[in-house]
Amino acid sequence: MESDVRNVSAALDLISEHWQPHRLTSINDYDVKVVKLQGEFVWHTHPDTDELFLVRSGRLTIQLRDRDVELGPDDVFVVPAGVEHCPRADEEVSALLFEPKGTVNTGDAGGDRTADLQEL
């Protein structure tokens, strides 16, 4: 069991690449990931799990097929399981993601933006 204190801001300072989530810690069967985002990601779904976005800084748009969801600092949004979405950050965003262990960032889309989860 992990018992070390982790600092979110310090962890985000270590990240230099966009769209490459890093595991900050885990709780039960979930990973808490830190990530920096910029530009448009890929349209994808996570068929078996919800995905929680918590924006720390910047403005993030979660594009859904029927609407856009705009998030600013300290905003939280949950993309329900199976809902196709495409995150977009016109300027750099720092965020936390809460997902079950083993969740792939590109979901069912795969491709060259699929990240190997890195540890901090």
From TrEMBL:
Residues 38-95 form the Cupin type-2 domain. InterPro entries: Cupin_2, PKS_Associated_Protein, RmlC-like_jellyroll, RmlC_Cupin_sf. Pfam families: Cupin_2. SUPFAM superfamilies: RmlC-like cupins. Residues 101-120 are annotated as: Disordered. Residues 110-120 have a biased composition (Basic and acidic residues). PANTHER family: 16.7 KDA PROTEIN IN WHIE LOCUS. This is Cupin domain-containing protein. It comes from Arthrobacter echini.
